[in-house]
Amino acid sequence: GEDVEQSLFLSVREGDSSVINCTYTDSSSTYLYWYKQEPGAGLQLLTYIFSNMDMKQDQRLTVLLNKKDKHLSLRIADTQTGDSAIYFCADYGNNRLAFGKGNQVVVIP
Amino acid sequence: SAVISQKPSRDICQRGTSLTIQCQVDSQVTMMFWYRQQPGQSLTLIATANQGSEATYESGFVIDKFPISRPNLTFSTLTVSNMSPEDSSIYLCSAWTGTEAFFGQGTRLTVV
């Protein structure tokens, strides 16, 4: 894992879909992760994708990976108020797990 | 999955002292990592804890300031040495199972 970039803030209405984006630079990344962190809480692993996959769906979560562009996205369908949190992407490569800056998602009821 | 127990959960320490943070995993894991998270910030990797050998430190972090031990595949410690107020932060332990990476609840350290 080397540098990982994320945008900072997203506001979304309850019931809509949220899309969070992330770019990374380490071409040797083998696994890419999405974590959720609520205020004052630890990091919760939401989902991950192996680098030879381009999509993974897990209930309301869809991860898309464009390895050529080193771009990772997380789509949350039917966003709920409980989805309000900071979301971090991370990539594992070269025996390192590096994190992006995080994206705060605020869900408006 | 892996369950990680980290302690202490929080501490207030005097400057110039040292604090050792413990991280226990409920299963053997391939890799263990230590991070620092400042309020409102992302996680900064301090080092990778290697079992049976010296930790691998990231740029800006040195062994004298952050000595790390990993005596076996389920346990690691991070010591924050000669603390100053700038060391006030949340310190997090992570365990990588070979596919997934899990985190402890963190240690909130305040140096006064």
Structure description:
The complex is a heterodimer of chains A (109) and B (112). Chain A has 109 residues and is mainly beta. Helix content of chain A is 0%, strand content 60%. In chain A, strand 9 (85-93) and strand 10 form a beta hairpin. Chain A is globular and about 40 Å long. The mean pLDDT of chain A is 91. The mean pLDDT of chain B is 95. Chain A binds chain B through residues 1, 31, 33, 35, 41-43, 45, 48, 50, 88, 90, 92, 95-102, and chain B through 31, 33, 35, 41-45, 48, 56, 58, 92, 94, 96, 99-106.
Helix content of chain B: under 10%
- Spatial gap, N to C terminus of chain B: 37 Å
Q: Main sheet of chain A, how many strands, which sense, barrel?
A: 6 strands, mixed
Helical fraction of chain A equals under 10%
Please outline the major beta sheet of chain B: 7 strands, mixed
- The number of distinct helices of chain B, counting runs of at least 4 residues, comes to 0
The fraction of residues in strands of chain A falls at: over 45%
Structural class of chain A: mainly beta
Can you count the beta strands of chain B? 11
Helix/strand order of chain B: EEEEEEEEEEE
Low-confidence stretches of chain A: none
Oligomer: heterodimer
Mean pLDDT score of chain A: 91
- Give the low-confidence spans of chain B: none
Summing up helix and strand content along with how strands pair, one would put the structural category of chain B as: mainly beta
Shape of chain A: globular
If helices are DSSP runs of H or I spanning 4 or more residues, what is the number of helices of chain A?
A: 0
